[in-house]
Write a structure and sequence with these properties.
With about 280 residues, this protein is α+β, with helices and mostly antiparallel strands. It folds into 3 domains: about 90 residues, mini-chromosome maintenance (MCM) complex, chain A, domain 1; about 110 residues, Nucleic acid-binding proteins (OB fold (Dihydrolipoamide Acetyltransferase, E2P), Beta Barrel); about 60 residues, no CATH class. It has 6 helices and 11 strands. It has a 5-stranded mixed β-barrel with strand order 3-7-9-11-10. About 25% of the residues are buried. The structure holds zinc ion. The site of zinc ion has 7 residues, from helix 6.
Length: about 280
Amino acid sequence: MSFKDEVAPSETDQQVLACWNSLITSNYIDDIKHLEGTSDAVFGFTIHHPLIVKEGVLALEFHENPTHALELGTQVLQEQFDKYGVRMRPVIRVVEFGPEYLRKVDDLRMRDRNKLFSFDVKLNDISHPYGWLKKAVYECRDCGTIIVKMQRRARERESPSTCRPCMFKAVDYMKDDDIPWGLFSPRPNFKMVLEECKYEDIQDISMRQITYNKDHHLIHCSTKNEIIGTVSDDLVGDLTAPDYVRVNGIVRVQPIPSRNFGKDTRRVLSIDVLSIEELPIEE
Ligand SMILES: [Zn+2]
């Protein structure tokens, strides 16, 4: 019997892992060594995009599927943190994207979803920090099997639909003619293991497009569209508004916040923020 989450990394993933390993060990080991003894729980570790561009397979995969490429990179960085006795959870903050990544908030459309862009914006407002259930852990009440369900923010919580060991047991029973059919319905019977669940700290930020000249003098702050972004982990509590910043992030499609029925099909764009860089703008 094979379970999906136990399979070895694909060939591409192995290449991406090797690229991250080469990038981190050739450029960032001194930075990692300096972190030993730091007592934060989470550390936002800056990685420069021009270095990613030099790593063939990683450059491509990062561009095509940044979320997954970052998961693999975090795995490699965590190994290096462990190796050098840095007892923090790393979060990769990629900065210094090239001008080809710059987009205007006012030009974003649904077709841009899941793409990575940079935006020069004025941070107008920052919400209070709050949390969401990122990883839910369930236990089968019948056999004790543990099932982990990664959740999506601002979506209905997902719970397991079947317990495989209980299902296989039921299938075995079905071969036995003496057992009545009424027992052959292995309904899921899970409870959530609250102490094993993982939550993520986040803040919502609202922002508007700015334009400025080459001397960083502000020309215009758009009044057309305000877009919401979400920052997590080390960035929570780290930002102030108003402020002028470059936001690097992935465009996401979210249900509208004020929906009053579950299957509302209307969607808005938002930004999952990967990193934020100060802009030295003068008004
Ligand atoms: Zn079970």
